[in-house]
Amino acid sequence: MSISNGNVQTLEAPLIPKRREKLIDVPVLGEKRILLAAPRGYCAGVDRAVIAVEKALERFGAPVYVRKQIVHNIHVVKELESRGVIFVDEVSEVPESSTIVFSAHGVSPMVVAEAADRGLNAIDATCPLVTKVHREAVRFSGQDYHILLIGHAGHEEVEGTMGHAPDHTTLVNNPDEADIITVPDTENLIWLSQTTLSVDETMETVRRLRLRFPHLSDPPSDDICYATQNRQVAIKKIAPECDLVIVVGSPNSSNSVRLVEVALEYGAKASYRVDYASEIKQEWLEGVSTIGLTSGASVPEVLVDHTLADLADAGYTQVKEIKTAEEDLQFSLPKELRKDSSGNVDQSLLGGRKGS
Ligand code: SF4
Region (Disordered): which ranges (predicted)? Predict the structure, then answer.
């Protein structure tokens, strides 16, 4: 399957590795079936970021530079590389006056300033829901709060958010750290979080923080985004029925990794994450009647289609979608891409890609 948006065609199948030998249909007790979680796959922020890079390529031509992976999915990255995108770790690697896109995970103000200093044409594809957390960090640090940021050290989103209030933020990686972190002020404390965490684990971290810091304030609204929450709710619903849950997603995709953890926590007998269907091992299917299938928020649906096709070879042809929420959120494209070369707003660039 390819996804179209106007005249943009993306995600051609040849980049997807094929398995050497087909999976074998081995009989099991009970009926073989797949429970397909919905929502799954692309969220509005990922869709917007990928379209932003595609539009940048169209408008400015290759090469377009992207700082870090535009979204945490190896297939998306490889596909964009094949079309002239160069991924870099730092702005300093980009030739002056080039076009650079900041990834969906967001950047710190220092990165924005460095790009301006180098005279780069910068397009900010930070997900608006990450930008919301950035704004909270700026606001609360300005009000002299100390921020306890629940998130994973080294994740790009965490680095970007901490960069908005570097002197007012302490990172809390997990519930155990809540028991040992030290803070400069126990009265004016507020917690914020990375957008792609496990909801349950985050609430446990908050509970343990509050035992030590009773004055801890809550953020005005959830930081764990709608897409992360919806995908976790869907997998929680099907996991108890599943002998195996397969999550399509890359190892550096926080929300994909969380889906494996949530599936196991909610009763799946086994759960594995794969980038591609070709990574599914025959032995995972031994004695498996019901397979749950989902994908992380940065995963194009074509990878799920390939997984369904491979599992059909193994006899899992009965597929039932279990939908726990409707999603129709779309974000406007980055402002740098919303106007055409004459400065007119191009209405076709408002909003994401339907049906991805
Ligand atoms: S997972 Fe959530 S925060 Fe991240 S890009 Fe998608 S919508 Fe935005």
Answer: 336-356
